[in-house]
Amino acid sequence: MEKFYYEIPSINRKEEAIAYIKEFYEFKSDIHGTGGLQRFLDNYEGWLDKLQEDYKRIANEEKVPARTYFLIRSSDNRIIGMINIRLALNEKLKKFGGHIGYSIRPTERGKGYNKINLYLGLKVCQEYKIDKVLMDADKDNPASWKTMEALGGVNVREFFDEENSHCIVKDYEINVNESIKNNSNIYEQMIEQLDL
Ligand SMILES: CC(C)(COP(=O)(O)OP(=O)(O)OC[C@H]1O[C@@H](n2cnc3c(N)ncnc32)[C@H](O)[C@@H]1OP(=O)(O)O)[C@@H](O)C(=O)NCCC(=O)NCCS
CATH number for the domain including 143? Predict the structure, then answer.
């Protein structure tokens, strides 16, 4: 069975992280959960500084504190996915965006990897005492909302979002402790280590 873990981005993965983003462009895929890495392809070190600022930030109406992780597959030490976890929400994020954005690289999709990504993300939320995670997904992105549903997400609202996505958006809530309790039998065996 494949095993996974989160890694805090460092200079060690510079080339690989840039290649991760380039793969999204190659496959013309939406990019999410990267902490803005796609805007720093020629300034990776600047992105690492930005992640530190993200982490230390005091929440305000414009920005909130957040952590970004690489999802690493142990067997080949490869970046498989990324996740951006907002540790607090402002009014804007409560309405759109929620706590978590994520992605799996295009060549590794459809293997259930985003479910382990979200499970690990919920473990981070538990660590930061976030009891209820709010998430949303475009209705035409079933791989995203089915991930949430697989982890016990409850679809609390569906609406046409005129401001941001300009499409139908599904809002979800996940009870963090309950989700971890109900899914630990599946996912704990897939975790290599939990070093947050
Ligand atoms: C959304 C994304 C992270 C899903 O990653 P993934 O590793 O392919 O997802 P998984 O394989 O873990 O599948 C999760 C669920 O979605 C389903 N699924 C996967 N791909 C699907 C597809 N193309 N169409 C419909 N359902 C799909 C799976 O069957 C699974 O549901 P199940 O447990 O009920 O069977 C990936 O498509 C991605 O990175 N997209 C671009 C970024 C993005 O849109 N992020 C979400 C917005 S923040």
Answer: 3.40.630.30
